[in-house]
Amino acid sequence: MFKTNLEDIKIALNDLSVIFRATSCLFLFPLAFTFLCFRGDNIIDLFQKIMVFVVPFLSLYLLHKLFKRIPRKYETKTKHVMMSVSIGWLLIAAVGALPYVLSNTLNPVDAFFESMSGWTTTGMTLIDYPEKMLEDKKDILFYRSFTQWVGGVGIIVLTLIVFLREGTAAIEYYSSEVGSLKLKPSIRRTIKETWKIYILYTIACTILLFLVGVGRMDLFDALNHAMTALPTGGFSIHSESIGFYGNPLVELVLILFMMAGGISFIIHYRAFEGKKSHIIKNIEFRYILLIVSVATVVFFIFFIPGEGALNSFRLSLFQTVSIMTTTGFGTSDIAFWPVPTQALLLMLMLIGGSYGSTGSGVKVLRFVVIAKSLVYSLKRFTLPKSVMLRLTVGENTIDYDEITFVFAFFTTYLLLTFIGALVLTGLGYGGFESASVSLSAISNVGPTYIPLFVESPEGVFEPNARWFQMPDVGKITLILLMWIGRLEIFPILVFFTIFVRKRKRKK
Question: Are 291 and 348 in contact (CB under 8 A)?
């Protein structure tokens, strides 16, 4: 038992010291890239550029030193993991905003938004023309994509492989990031296998994009989109996203790697082991293929009159995979799609990717449990009481506690989405627009039904002020939704519950 909530906070902050130590080192990668792409002989300019990443590196390292000195009396328990993960993501996103501010790219609130969107792999952006940064801010674009690449597998997972010893705490931290993904008995070996596959896929995606994108996609373009496709992030270095390239082969490569990011890493590991039967038997994988197929056909039917068969299929498949996996790349602005297709896209945003993947959303497995629970309940009403029923998903039996947790998660998810939409509606946005923005944020998808670019009276498309100049209240609401969605709600609820209890005791 813990005597005071203060002791809980001390333990959580002490654990954070290790996470901040690992994350501080990540800023050395964009720092190195700054040296590589610097073209000039002015030492002052170089100094200013390197300080953009040196400052956040030192900030996190100082936090590591500070939190390491905090005394603790007890071992790490589940609630401390929940607290430190919640605080950790928030502080890392805050420190991660510094490069945008120090490089005069964004103001502090917009920078925090962009940073949170990156680390949580959401892909919402407040940078209207990223291509304008290719000349003198390539390092910022690289950093922006890099945050999604790291955020895909998880900051805490990276920390575990480097610093933490195995044991209960390590397992708790791992589970808080990626769920119940189990590849090997050893937690450290599990994480190493995950990162090996992740790095291998990133290299493969970069090479393939570079090869098929000859003419418009150079190596820098290929690397950036590989770093944001596999983690299902969606940041692009062009305002037109993937539509800029107009290349069906580029889209095909990205479809493959978005799908790779959207399905469980268990499947990838089994594939490397040669266990094809395990892949086919995986119930989530089968349902993802089914949902993608059905949605693609529906969109195809809608768009074939105006686009033709080939273009309609190409558009439908790419956008279905992009939204379903919560990546958010675009070859078309979904804000201008017909309302029935937008409603289906909202359903795909809600469902999301696979459990143990880099994707977000409610997750396919949870929807399978919900659907089977409803069928199970109907059978209980219609069959004699003497009949024994079991609720199974694949080869696993689901108990009552797991069902309760899934329904609690789903209800809370919808409630938070509604609250977010309510805030945006109060700021003057339409109901459907607000719902799309709120759901896209908490599901870490990115695209919304507020157009990023609108046509001016002169016939020129320009950035939409309704998005890029959203009131700060709206931006902060979305920051919180992205944060909550990435951590799947409950760690943050535990975090707030502890503070509420402490306040009640003081009263």
Answer: yes
Does residue 36 have a pLDDT over 60? yes
Residue 438 contacts residue 488 (beta carbons within 8 Å): no
Cα 440 to Cα 330, 346, 362, distances in angstroms: 14, 8, 12
For residue 498, pLDDT beyond 80: no
- Over residues 326-339, the pLDDT tens digits come to 999 999 999 999 99
Token pair, residue 456, equals 């001016």
In this predicted model, what pLDDT tens digit does every residue of 113-148 receive, in sequence order? Answer: 999 999 999 999 999 999 999 988 999 999 999 999
Range 107-130 burial, b when 16+ CB lie within 10 A, else e: eebbbbbbbbbbbbbbbbbbbeeb
Nearest-angstrom CA–CA distance, 162 and 455: 50
453 - beta bridge partners?
Answer: 463
pLDDT of residue 387: 60
The predicted pLDDT at position 169 comes to: 44
3-state SS, residue 507? coil
Sheet strands (E) in 72-161: none
Separation between Cα atoms, residue 86 and residue 13, nearest integer Å: 11
Q: Is 336 exposed, middle or buried (0-12, 13-18, 19+ CB in 10 A)?
A: exposed
Instruction: Determine the Cα–Cα distance for residues 62 and 59; give it in Å rounded to an integer.
Output: 5
Of 19, 27, 233, 21, the C-alpha closest to 143 is 27
H or E segment and range at residue 463: strand 461-463
- For residue 396, give the H/E element and its range: strand 396-397
Q: What does the longest C-alpha to C-alpha distance in the chain come to?
A: 84
Q: Determine what percent of the chain falls in helix, strand and coil, rounding each to the nearest 5.
A: 70, 0, 30
- Provide the whole-model pTM: 0.90
DSSP letter at 454? E
Q: Does residue 311 have a pLDDT over 70? A: yes
Instruction: Give every CB contact of residue 139 below 8 A, 6+ residues apart in sequence.
Output: 30, 33, 34, 37, 49, 52, 53
Paired tokens of 386: 């003497």
The structure tokens 């800029």 sit at: 244
Q: Are 347 and 439 in contact, with CB atoms under 8 Å apart?
A: no
Taking the C-alpha atoms of residue 325 and residue 259, their distance in angstroms, rounded to an integer, is 7
What are 456-487's pLDDT values in tens digits?
Answer: 888 788 999 999 999 999 999 999 999 999 98
CA distance 430 to 425: 6
Percent of the residues in the chain that have a pLDDT greater than 70, as a whole number: 88
CA distance 282 to 284: 6
Q: C-alpha angle 103/23/492, rounded to 5°?
A: 100
Q: What are phi and psi of 278, to 5 degrees?
A: -65, -35
